[in-house]
Task: structure prediction
Amino acid sequence: MASSGVNVLRYSALGAGVAYGIWHQSVLTQKAKRNQAERDYQHQLSLVEKAKQDYAKKLSPQAEDGGVITDPDDSRFDLEAYLNMKAAE
Result:
């Protein structure tokens, strides 16, 4: 049978190992939560950026008939280019 000094040493090592395991697990969990939060934030940013691009695409008038804008209310409307396009038809 082992002496009481050896048993104290064994249980001290066991207790230290359990304490280290708990501490290490908490560190890993914190890192995982931080990484997940960062991934969620980056995903949110990418969704916002995609929505901005889609909105800008929706607002920009589509160039029709070879790049000539036919909407007279558009600020980029060019009457000369429009008339040349109609004359070519």
Q: What stands out?
A: The two ends are 107 Å apart (CA to CA).
